[in-house]
Amino acid sequence: MSSEYLTPSNEKNDVASATENKDGQSSANNGETETLSKKQRKKLMRHQKWEEERNLRKQKRKEKRQKRSLERKNQGEEGGEFEGRKRLRKEVTPSSPLRLVIDCSFDNLMMFKDVRKLHKQIQRCYSVNRRAAHPVQFYLTSLGGQLKQNMDKTDEGWVNWKDITVKTEAYHEVVVKEELVYLTSDSPNVLTELDETKAYVIGGLVDHNHHKGITFKRAQELGIDHAQLPLNSFVKMNSRKVLAVNHVFEIILVYLEKGNWQEAFFTVLPLRKGAIPLGQEGIATEDEEESDRDTETVTPNTTGNEQDQQ
């Protein structure tokens, strides 16, 4: 018989063989699936679903971007200001002509840990000035030594700071002496208002009362004006009257906005300092009594001592 023809028995064997192969493959797949735990199967299904919906998600993102773009365009045509995810700087008046100068010439008088504290206070000053309703002209003078090394090492981005003037020269070499006013509480002169034609100098010194009166003495030696903030005229404090560099800086910013010294003091001074309006009795809390332990924003002295710091 020709090989082209199959006998009924051969045909039956071939069908059986095909069935066996199919069943064997199916059994292998089932065996692979059966080896997965219930948790693994669910995870596999979720992954498959995530892959299947990839294009759909991409399309939704595209539509969302187009919608935001259209909103920005529409608001721009209406003269509005669009505020996206990035917070915009609030509307401010033009920068005040008043200048605030941090004198960084005390680098050799501080331990490195205190230099780091001064750096943090300067960072705070920069930050609040950028957000202030009436930002001032901000100066850093005599920058060098340990302070600059720490800034370069821990905050490389400081070189890109905006709205600040950084000088290696001393403040009296940057601003004419007639326009300078050194803030120090040893001064017999008390500020009643700020003169926007002046440059007010804050001593950048964290010394824990080791160099009493040094900023007042330097102001006298240079023959420049000096004054103290009117703290004693408005505030009674249950703890030491020590203000950090950033406290002095912020008080002046708030005063420029509010025009009220008392409001400026009580907006800025930490609660644990126990500050109360002059004439009112108050009892220091346990936190206030322990405020001397704070080494970041309370203890640091920017002009040399308790009386010298403004």
From TrEMBL:
Reactions performed catalytically: guanosine(9) in tRNA + S-adenosyl-L-methionine = N(1)-methylguanosine(9) in tRNA + S-adenosyl-L-homocysteine + H(+)
CDD domains linked to this entry: Trm10euk_A (cd18101)
One GO term of the biological process aspect: tRNA N1-guanine methylation
Biased composition (Polar residues): 1-34, 298-310
Region (Disordered): 1-90, 281-310
Enzyme class, first EC level, given as a word: transferase
Enzyme active site: 207 (proton acceptor)
The SAM-dependent MTase TRM10-type domain, residue ranges: 84-276
Key words, A-Z: Methyltransferase, S-adenosyl-L-methionine, Transferase
Superkingdom of this protein's organism: Eukaryota
Biased composition range(s): Acidic residues: 284-293
EC number: 2.1.1.221
InterPro entries: MT_TRM10-typ, MT_TRM10-typ_sf, TRM10/TRM10A, tRNA_m1G_MeTrfase_euk
GO molecular function: tRNA (guanosine(9)-N1)-methyltransferase activity; tRNA binding
GO cellular-component term (any): cytosol
Composition bias, Basic residues: 38-47, 57-67
Role: S-adenosyl-L-methionine-dependent guanine N(1)-methyltransferase that catalyzes the formation of N(1)-methylguanine at position 9 (m1G9) in tRNAs. Probably not able to catalyze formation of N(1)-methyladenine at position 9 (m1A9) in tRNAs.
PANTHER family given in the database record: TRNA (GUANINE-9-) METHYLTRANSFERASE (PTHR13563), TRNA METHYLTRANSFERASE 10 HOMOLOG A (PTHR13563:SF13)
Protein name from the UniProt record: tRNA methyltransferase 10 homolog A
